Amino acid sequence: MRVIDAPSPNFNDRTLPITMLVLHYTGMESAEAAVTRLCDPAAEVSCHYLVHEDGRVLRLVADEHRAWHAGTSHWRDIEDVNSASIGIEIVNPGHEWGYRAFPEAQIDAVVRLVAHLKDKYEITRGNVVGHSDIAPARKRDPGELFPWNRLSRLRLALPRPTKNLADPFWSEAGFCLALERFGYDVSDRMAAIMAFQRRFRPELIDGEIDAECRMILLALLLPKPQGDD
User: Fold this and answer.
1) Transmembrane region positions (predicted)?
2) Which residues are within 8 A (CB) of 32 and not within 5 positions of it... i.e. 6 or more apart?
3) Which residues are CB-neighbours of 223 under 8 A, at least 6 positions away?
4) Which of 68, 80, 96, 191 is most exposed, with the fewest beta carbons within 10 Å of its own?
5) Spatial distance between the Cα atoms of 215 and 228, rounded to a whole number of angstroms
6) Would you call the peptide bond into 202 cis, given omega within 30 degrees of 0 as the criterion?
């Protein structure tokens, strides 16, 4: 795929190997405003790649460098997510500026980019995550309209489990313990539950732990979750 270089000065050295991909939406009024901010030294934010709505891909920071896209975040045993990840910004105004569905050309480009990076760095499906997964108390992107099923069908991300589901009847504390084991920061329980729902049950994001949520999480903790992949 063709990648256009648009260098940002906002990066430093990695201290960890690349083991994660983090997907974001830009959450700004326009793509131009997002690129300007990501390349502004005063903003102190950046990403490795930005995918326009028409499918064009910009590279702002080289893979070997640590871009500043994750902020304060956590996933599994990783606290410095910036050092361990590649950040992909997907142009979309986000929840504050008129959140909308992602165009087909854009998602096609995201799929190609994720496939390339996942293969190049041998990243597991469980480490292809959204910003809301790694920072549930602060972020909602890429949001409930992002088609994770497109990635999971190609084995580029974990599926939403739909087969052989069983309810473990966990209490709220038990569910949150399992959610933490899966990878989420559960210090804000409601935020973590809603982030999980946004990713794996996006049609109902209410922060309530029901049987469907328990069954999905249990299946994800098993070695080979079966669903829309």
Assistant:
1) none
2) none
3) none
4) 96
5) 15
6) no
As annotated, the active-site residues are: 89
Helices (H), the chain: 31-38, 81-84, 104-121, 131-134, 148-153, 172-182, 189-200, 211-221
Q: Which two tokens stand for residue 5?
A: 């270089």
Tell me, what DSSP letter sits at residue 222?
Answer: S
- How many C-beta neighbours within 10 Å does residue 223 have? 4
Q: Structure tokens of 150?
A: 């497109």
Q: How many CB atoms lie within 10 A of CB 54?
A: 11
Q: How far apart are CA 121 and CA 112, in angstroms?
A: 14
Q: Which amino acid is at 108?
A: D
One digit per residue, pLDDT tens: the chain, 229 residues?
799 999 999 999 999 999 999 999 999 999 999 999 999 999 999 999 999 999 999 999 999 999 999 999 999 999 999 999 999 999 999 999 999 999 999 999 999 999 999 999 999 999 999 999 999 999 999 999 999 999 999 999 999 999 889 999 999 999 999 999 999 999 999 999 999 999 999 999 999 999 999 999 999 998 876 665 4
pTM of the model: 0.96
